[in-house]
Specification:
single chain, 34% helix, Rossmann fold, 6 strands, 233 residues, alpha/beta
Length: 233
């Protein structure tokens, strides 16, 4: 696993069931907007807060590896998949492992979509995430940050614990390189209404998903007949 030398490192976890072009655009645009040295994709073995993935962990990892094989600035961490047989993947433990790998001083940035960030309080030991990494939140029209309601003048709402963290930690991209962890930085990304659920549904129906997933992922799906019904084609 390459760590791209020095500089701010982005960490992008997910089930990637399957990896699709919106995942790649998020990583590319995060790297550009946040001046990241690179982005490390971390496929989850057994996600803690989501349904069991449709694709086996080994298949999902293989698709990510093939899709990123020739893309500069991206790497893959297979450790969560390697541990999939034993226990769920918790982001806090993933970040603890990444911090051991990269040392206490290197800036690490967890990349999240706005929807995932809005549910952060449900995550295991969520407040401790900020001790280990920054969080960068990808926003797009219709998927902006839905916190900080209490920050509206005249709004009497008390706000949530996440609202308070966001208010205290919100920063700009330039802040990420200054300290190893602790900031929350929103960044805008191209609006792409693509989901793994919709891709799987098309595959189950025998429909094409070309240009929704990288060619290497489509080739893998075709060769291993993943997600397709027995009568799909």
């Amino acid at each position: 696993m390459s760590d791209f030398g020095e500089g701010v490192l982005g960490l992008f976890g997910g089930t990637f069931d399957p990896l699709h072009v919106a995942h790649l655009r998020l990583a590319i645009e995060a790297r550009e907007a946040l001046d990241l040295a690179g982005v490390c994709f971390i496929p989850a073995g057994i996600p803690a807060l989501r349904e069991t993935p449709h694709g086996a962990a080994a298949h999902r990892l293989a698709m990510v590896e093939r899709a990123l094989a020739d893309v500069p600035g991206f790497s893959v961490d297979a450790a969560e998949v390697a541990n999939a047989a034993s226990r769920p993947s918790y982001t806090i433990e993933t970040l603890e492992r990444q911090r051991r790998l990269h040392g206490p001083q290197r800036p690490l940035v967890l990349l999240l979509g706005a929807d995932a960030f809005a549910r952060l309080e449900a995550w295991h030991r969520w407040r401790e995430l900020f001790d280990l990494a920054h969080i960068a939140v990808a926003t797009r029209p219709g998927h902006e940050l839905k916190v900080m309601r209490s920050g509206i003048p005249g709004d009497g709402a008390a706000g949530t614990a996440l609202d308070s963290e966001f208010a205290a930690r919100r920063g700009e991209p330039a802040d990420l390189a200054k300290v190893p962890a602790g900031r929350i930085v929103p960044f805008a990304m191209t609006a792409l209404e693509i989901s793994a659920t919709a891709i799987r549904r098309r595959l189950e129906q025998g429909l094409s998903v070309r240009y929704l997933v990288p060619d290497a992922v489509l080739d893998y799906i075709d060769s291993h007949q993943i997600y397709r019904t027995p009568h799909g084609h």
